[in-house]
């Protein structure tokens, strides 16, 4: 079974630009979550999507947004990039949300560098 | 305010011995706890989890212990192997207040297993 796939693996952008990251979850997984990993802040929750709806949101500014498509694939967008947005962005998926806990399975991330 | 704390940034253990990684949390609403392992340039890999209704869960060489009164959990790896060398993250979620997929991560502990 293929794992969570994130594209691209690496991205270099300039301050003020916007960026879109893509995530394909494990087949059959309908929940997709996004996390930001930085050396100083560790892994921080951005948002979660389930059945094309944002189900949960972390404490990030409105410049960070996402969406989920009917095939469960998800995209994350960051507008007006700042230097502090440089980070590893991780996508994770889990099996259908039934109200019970199931572990998140992570992709290898997209390394975003803002110059 | 760090809700999940891993106070040891690094741990060095001899091959074949036990590795004990510790994690403390402050939010009494947390009811699901997980451990992830992360190699460089890869996403976190799920290791083992435990629900707050249990105090121990085993999976092969990995055992997680939960002490709810002390708000403390630990991961035991026995016997430790060189391939276990990685960064280990403790994570927690509050099913009915934060959402099952909104994980709060600790800062990680770097485990080095040497021959």
Explain this structure to me?
The complex is a heterodimer of chains A (115) and B (115). Helix content of chain A is 0%, strand content 52%. Chain A has no helices and 11 strands. In chain A, the strands form 2 sheets. In chain A, strands 2, 4, 5, 6, 9, 10 and 11 form a 7-stranded mixed beta sheet that branches. Chain A has a 4-stranded antiparallel beta sheet with strand order 1-3-8-7, with no helix packed on it. Chain A is globular. The termini of chain A are far apart. The model of chain A has no long low-confidence stretch (mean pLDDT 92). With 115 residues, chain B is mostly beta strands. Chain B has strands at 4-5, 10-14, 19-25, 32-38, 45-51, 56-59, 62-67, 72-77, 86-93, 104-105, 109-114. The radius of gyration of chain B is 14 Å and the shape is globular. The mean pLDDT of chain B is 93. Classes of the chains: A mainly beta (115), B mainly beta (115). Chains A and B meet through strand 4, strand 5, strand 9 and strand 10 of A and strand 4, strand 5, strand 9 and strand 10 of B.
Topology of this structure?
The complex is a heterodimer of chains A (115) and B (115).
Chain A: E1 5-7, E2 10-13, E3 19-24, E4 31-38, E5 42-50, E6 53-57, E7 64-68, E8 74-78, E9 87-94, E10 105-106, E11 110-114
Parallel strand pairs in A: 2-11
Antiparallel strand pairs in A: 1-3, 3-8, 4-5, 4-9, 5-6, 7-8, 9-10, 9-11
Chain B: E1 4-5, E2 10-14, E3 19-25, E4 32-38, E5 45-51, E6 56-59, E7 62-67, E8 72-77, E9 86-93, E10 104-105, E11 109-114
Parallel strand pairs in B: 2-11
Antiparallel strand pairs in B: 1-3, 3-8, 4-5, 4-9, 6-7, 7-8, 9-10, 9-11
């Amino acid at each position: 079974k293929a794992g969570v796939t994130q594209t691209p693996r690496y991205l270099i952008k300039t301050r003020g630009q916007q960026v879109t990251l893509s995530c394909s979850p494990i087949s059959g997984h309908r929940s997709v979550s996004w996390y930001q990993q930085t050396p100083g802040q560790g892994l921080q929750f951005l948002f979660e999507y389930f059945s094309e709806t944002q189900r949960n949101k972390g404490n990030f500014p409105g410049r960070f947004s996402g969406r989920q498509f009917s095939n469960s694939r998800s995209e994350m967008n960051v507008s007006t990039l700042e230097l502090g947005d440089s980070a590893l962005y991780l996508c994770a998926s889990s099996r259908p949300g039934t109200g019970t806990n199931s572990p998140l399975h992570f992709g290898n991330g997209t390394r975003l560098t803002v110059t | 305010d760090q809700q999940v704390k891993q106070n040891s940034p690094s741990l060095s253990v001899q091959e074949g011995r036990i590795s004990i990684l510790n994690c403390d949390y402050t939010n009494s609403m947390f009811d699901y706890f997980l451990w992830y392992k992360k190699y460089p340039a890869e996403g976190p890999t799920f290791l083992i989890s435990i629900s707050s209704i249990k105090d121990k869960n085993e999976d092969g060489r990995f055992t997680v212990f939960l002490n709810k009164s002390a708000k403390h959990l630990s991961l035991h790896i026995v016997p430790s192997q060189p391939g276990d060398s990685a960064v280990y993250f403790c994570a927690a979620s509050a099913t009915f207040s934060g959402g099952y997929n909104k994980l709060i991560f600790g800062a990680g502990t770097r485990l080095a297993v040497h021959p």
